């Protein structure tokens, strides 16, 4: 098992997936920004013209959706926004927060009980090695009649994998059943390929 420091040291932009983003400049010009590892390209987006190219719209709304997995277990629907919104946390009666993100600080340590388990969203990361401490925290909170919110950075890979693994461990579910359960509460989950293989082979 690699340490977190070793994983960070071995991380490079080459691990990043190819990403394309549509960018609208302040003049209304549409561009496609493409990043693939160390490479970067910018090109005109010819699909957008006419009236659609005359404005600039930026969506700054917070994504505060939370999916209920169990009466004591919640999963952030997408980003870490919910974990940083005190009103959402109180509305959901959260008492404990499991933070498995990288570089995301705990927002309200004076209000909630936190557990930080820094996990990198890389296929080679051994996520199952982090399960025992995560599951212990969730079980401890549930035994205290607490409510646990699990979050990472984007809410699709690390946190989802931890919750899937927890259901397999705690409720003896198969991978398929646990995956369906979490996906029904959080439709956009997408553990990376390495995590998926580990979960399929996980034997609690």
Automatic annotation (TrEMBL):
Give the highest taxon in the source lineage: Eukaryota
Which residue numbers delimit the Tyrosine-protein phosphatase domain? 65-204
Catalytic activity, as annotated = O-phospho-L-seryl-[protein] + H2O = L-seryl-[protein] + phosphate; O-phospho-L-tyrosyl-[protein] + H2O = L-tyrosyl-[protein] + phosphate; O-phospho-L-threonyl-[protein] + H2O = L-threonyl-[protein] + phosphate
- A cellular component annotation (GO) from this entry: cytoplasm
The record places domain Tyrosine specific protein phosphatases at 135-189
Tell me where in or outside the cell this protein is found.
Cytoplasm; Nucleus
Q: Which GO terms of the molecular function aspect are on file? A: JUN kinase phosphatase activity; protein serine/threonine phosphatase activity; protein tyrosine phosphatase activity
Q: What is its EC number?
A: 3.1.3.16, 3.1.3.48
Q: Which UniProt keywords apply?
A: Cytoplasm, Hydrolase, Nucleus, Protein phosphatase
Give the PANTHER family listed for this entry.
Answer: DUAL SPECIFICITY PROTEIN PHOSPHATASE 19
Q: What does this protein do?
A: Dual specificity phosphatase; can dephosphorylate both phosphotyrosine and phosphoserine or phosphothreonine residues. Can dephosphorylate glucokinase (in vitro). Has phosphatase activity with the synthetic substrate 6,8-difluoro-4-methylumbelliferyl phosphate and other in vitro substrates.
Q: Which family does it belong to?
A: Belongs to the protein-tyrosine phosphatase family. Non-receptor class dual specificity subfamily.
Q: What is this protein called?
A: Dual specificity protein phosphatase 12
| Native source species | Triplophysa tibetana
């Amino acid at each position: 098992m690699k340490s977190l420091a070793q994983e960070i040291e071995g991380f490079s932009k080459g691990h990043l997936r190819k990403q394309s983003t549509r960018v609208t400049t302040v003049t209304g010009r549409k561009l496609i920004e493409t990043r693939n590892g160390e490479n970067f390209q910018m090109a005109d987006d010819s699909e957008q013209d006419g009236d659609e190219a005359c404005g600039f719209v930026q969506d700054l709304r917070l994504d505060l959706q939370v999916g209920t997995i169990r009466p004591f277990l919640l999963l952030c629907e997408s980003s870490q926004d919910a974990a940083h919104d005190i009103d959402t946390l109180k509305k959901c009666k959260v008492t404990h927060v499991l933070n498995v993100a990288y570089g995301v600080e705990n927002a309200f340590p004076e209000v909630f009980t936190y557990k930080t388990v820094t996990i990198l969203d890389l296929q080679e990361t051994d996520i199952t090695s982090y399960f025992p401490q995560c599951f212990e925290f969730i079980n401890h909170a549930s035994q205290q009649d607490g409510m646990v919110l699990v979050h990472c950075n984007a809410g699709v890979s690390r946190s989802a994998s931890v919750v899937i693994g927890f259901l397999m461990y705690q409720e003896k579910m198969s991978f398929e059943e646990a995956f369906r359960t979490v996906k029904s509460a959080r439709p956009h989950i997408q553990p990376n390929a390495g995590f998926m293989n580990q979960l399929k082979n996980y034997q609690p």
